[in-house]
Amino acid sequence: MKEVLGSLWANIFKKSGKGEKAVREVLRQMPMFKDLKNRELFQLERILHRRDYNVGETIFNQGDPGLGMYIIEEGVVDIVAGSERQQLAELKAGDFFGELALLDDTPRTAAALAKTPCRLLCFFQPDLFDLLERTPRSGIKILFNLARILGERLIRANESLQDLRKDGRV
Amino acid sequence: MEGFDALTTRLPGSKGGNMNKGRGRLARYFFLALTIAALVILVIVLSDIVKTIVIAALLAYIADPAAAFLESRLVSRRAATLLIFLFLLLGTALCFFLLVPALGREIAALRAGFDSGEAVATISRIERTLEDSLGFLGVRNLDLVNRTQKAMVSVSDWMFSHLLDMVSLFTNLVIIPFIVFFLLKDGREIKKRLVHMVPNRYFEFTLYMLHKMDLQLGNYLRGQFMDALIFGALSMVSLWLLHVKYFVAIGLFAGLANLIPFLGPVAGAAPAVIIAVIDSGNLMQAVYVLLAFAAMKLIDDSLIQPIVVARSVDMHPLVVLMAVIVGGRLFGILGMLLAVPAVGFLKVVLSEGVATFRKYQWADT
For B200, which of A57, A64, A67 is closest by C-beta distance? Predict the structure, then answer.
């Protein structure tokens, strides 16, 4: 409640603080947002949510509706799948996950668990699309970079599949 | 977040995990029910203040897309809000200097009663006709002339008392713009801070529900606002062309009344027809006014609404009618205006909320 009231009474001429500059730096380092200008990053920053997760806390479950993408600001996140929670990847600060949810509404294909206390930045799909509609130039840059990332992941997945076939495991 | 999570912690001295979960869930529902009941009572007790805040929030909500558009065009949110605010103030000042004197003159004329001898003759003729044809039902001594005179005076008294109530005038002219400015400037931040208070397990679900409600209500409210403006302007022009007295007041009223489904258009046309008959003493004038309103309604339904209003609420007409009646009963005219979006909001919560809630697999933290 203090934070809500704080936003009502804050000095309207106050310039952005240290915390907000740090978030912008995190965004700038993301491959999806690396081509964006300061003003575009500022607009992006206005729609992201910052969440803190405790050790072992579930960020989302496999099968949940996919609604947003997460960027790890601090901490380590495990990506797991199946009922046995088999680890698929371990992601650290600067990594991101859940970006497929930005493209469609398919359910999450894996679960994400906080391995250590984490601070995540989340983009909600409708908010991002709304921003992309209002600023199409930024939208093109973001979507192009997203397509490139997904393309790279597909190539790596193909290479892994070929290796598994060579080893006779598939 | 910790406040909510505390409700699910193990109660001291309890046996077994399932019992604790059940008690925790019961405590949570009880707390939620108590909070909702307290909020409802607070809203009813503080209805005047709530109305002011609701009006301000609606204005900010309607103006938000414009602020977002300006913000995306190389302007900060603060500057965008100031620009829109200046525009609104300019519009309000224009209305104040152009419309209020005309409105005041028309209200004063209503208070003085109708002075046209023809109008008195017409009403007397109508009274005689009714008494002659419905005399067998015991219809006698209707005294329509005096009743009509009293009705006009009471309507103008009501309008005068609302316009000249200095306390509410101060409230509306100062507090509403104040709230609108800060909601427009910091609304998104306030929403983010409120979402931040939601526990992680309900975070995505909350965002989804807020998005659905925005989709359901946002286009409807903004479109209705534009529709009311256009219909009100059309009414004023039509009545002015037909030389109907008090066309400013009636046009304004018709525009606002058009916001209310089903009952609004009828309520908007009725004063125009009555004034036309009383003022001119000519029943044909009433027919012209009715035709004008019918034409405007046709233009509204076939041209304005499809372009301006996204009727995305999608409810059965019976539900809409009941909502309007209940809303009017509870909160007067504001209740009637907001009945449809309020029921649409409930519809989203119940249908989308329940369906989406089930899709989430809540893991134990």
Answer: A57
